[in-house]
Amino acid sequence: MALEHAILVSLLEQPGSGYELARRFERSIGRFWTATHQQIYRVLKRMEADGWVTAEEIGQGGRPDKRCYSVAASGRVVLASWLRDPVQPEAVRHELAVKIRGAAFTDADGRATLIAEVERYRVTHEATLQRYLTGERRDFPDTATLDAGRRLQHTVLRGGIAYERMVLDWLDDVLDTLRGLDR
């Protein structure tokens, strides 16, 4: 997937400025596709030059005008074509998992260092899970009334929540195993 596709999906959900897109990436799309503000602005400029998006200048009374982007017909064609392409399963490269396997070849001090690293890693995943749960409560308080687009957004978020819970369960298992090696 290219950043262009994530931007097209986001703009079809709701047109917006580069700044607004960057905020959406921070709040929701960033759960599965990250991009910096600079990357978003650079790609928007290229997409506009390619005719995939159009921009409308909007005055802001005393502040610089903003450019509000929306998807052009050719952008819809590009997205429709991409949606038909098969998706290959992603290869997982997980440095921490290799370190955990390597713990069999170190001493108690090395395992203690690894335990601290797994605990740190766990804290970041716990924080991510909490952000997702907070976002779910904020953005999807009444799932019975969601339209198709919002139901699909919620499904992706639920996948992120399930993933984070799975990682936390696995990390707890790793910690129990590592701590049990030196008993």
TrEMBL record:
The Transcription regulator PadR C-terminal domain, residue ranges? 92-178
Instruction: Quote the SUPFAM superfamilies the UniProt record gives.
Output: Winged helix' DNA-binding domain
Q: Which domain of life is it from?
A: Bacteria
Q: Where does the record place the Transcription regulator PadR N-terminal domain?
A: 7-80
Pfam families of this UniProt entry? PadR, Vir_act_alpha_C
The cross-references to PANTHER family, in alphabetical order and at most eight, read:
TRANSCRIPTIONAL REGULATOR YQJI (PTHR43252), TRANSCRIPTIONAL REGULATORY PROTEIN (PTHR43252:SF4)
* Protein name in the entry: PadR family transcriptional regulator
